[in-house]
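RESIDUES AND SHAPES:
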Amino acid sequence: MSEISESEGNVVLKTQARKKKRTGRLSEVSKKIKLSSHEMGGSCKCTRLKCFETTSEEERKMILRHFNSLSSHNDQNNYLAGLIVTHPVQKRRPRLNESSATTRDASFSYRVRIQGENSVQRDIPVCEKAFRAIHGITHSKLVYIKNSLKLYGVAPQDKRGKHSALHRKLADSTTSLIYNHISSFKGRKSHYSLHDSKKLYLPEDLNIKKMFTLFKEQHPNVHVSYETYRCMFNTKFNISFGYPRSDTCAMCDEFSAKIKSLSPDKDKEEIKKLTTLNVLHKKKAEKFYVRKRKARLAARNDKKIEAICMDFAKNISIPNLNTNDVYYKRQLSMYSFNIHVLSSNQSFFYVYHEGIAKKSPNEIASFLFHFINNYLDDDVEQLQIFCDSAGGQNKNFTIIRFIKFLTNKNIHGLKQIKITFPIRGHSYMECDKDVGLLNLKSPMETPKDFREVIKTSRAKPSPFKVIKVTQSLILNWKVLLYKEFVQKCPFKIQPSKEIIASAIDCRLICHRTTYNGAFLSDVICRPSKKDVHSTERGEFALPLQLYRAPILIKKAKYADLMSLMKFCSSNAQKFYRNMAHE
């Protein structure tokens, strides 16, 4: 394994950190295909052993399937050698004089092995032609194995690429130069690796090709191919490109800073204490991911359960142009709210710009309501939601009252909704992976261009589903919920880690501040004489539309957009010119 030293927030690789060997290149794939693509030949028409009559077609196919399933040339050679028996020559009948006649120094008999009932194997003698036909091998391959049996008594071993004295072998000094050059790059460890991972991340603007170019600039007289450099990078190091996330956990950073400020010799006990507390903190954070994995498995095994992740993606500014003027001008902000279904890996993006709506709890509730009624399976009765602890978006009393409203009104047949929040700074989820697939560097002039970028960013397991958000989709949930629920939350929301809304207790909401502790319950519904279960499924009063007119763009921003229009197409110019503004 590799040793990693830390200096000023960076990590320097000192020794090897091996990756799992890859077999995805064309040469490796070709070898695998050749090993497993032997085809059966025709009948030997043997009258002495009657090879194709003593073995059925199904048995011959079974033998060939087993032979093709062997994973290497050595395994296949050993298998074939075990079916060949060497005999001394009993009698020679040379047709020429002994001085000019070519005589055999050994005879061979062949057999095929068939798996019978109750795992009983039986060997059936066959002729040489049938032996080659059944295993799909050539005459030269058989001669190669027989010569090894005659000379050494064992099957031949594949020696390709294993010679120690190749004339083109890379010199040790060159290998050392490549190794030291790759090790000289500073990387970072992933903040989201809760286990002891040795993987490092180099900046995203770097790649193997650039590293090889830098190596050639430093060592112009060293003759090394790019393929050699690439192979050494992939096999001797455990490195990827692109830092996983820019934000880190404040508590982890605090632990790291305190440990660095202490002396390893004088403050051993304090360092040990801080390290233990940091490990405990990360163990607590890992519980969130354990909950998410269990929810995914439960959703895949039970149609009545579904689990989703949800989060706002990074704001995107448009028009996204190549001109330098965009660095000095204010642009239009694009918002995208992502819902990722854990059971099927489907992903939904609700996309809109700042002139349509904002990023308040009303928008979150509206998107969830639209998703549940249009895309959630009809059989689902329990919904588990995983999201970060953003107080102005996900973790607030409006969302808590909203999920209670859904279960009380029996909307879409939901009987229970559970929201799980992560430890702050340890909130990396599938939504972040989805956003990481978006090519946000591509030119985008209008919201339509941004939606097209999202649609074409993923093909498997299914393309991203993009919903164009209009103001009719955004509802004023806060006002509606105020009529049925108390105005102030009876418990502290921010410390909560799990919140459950159930149809069983119509007025109570359950919550807890840990992932394993006991649930507490509080009343959040106003007393009502009317039975909340008296309405049929789907019967409820919808809230009013939140926005009645477009949100006005600031005067200064609109002026900047007008100055950028000259770099855009005519359709984009028309879009920006018609935007509502102050």
Q: What stands out?
A: The radius of gyration is 35 Å.
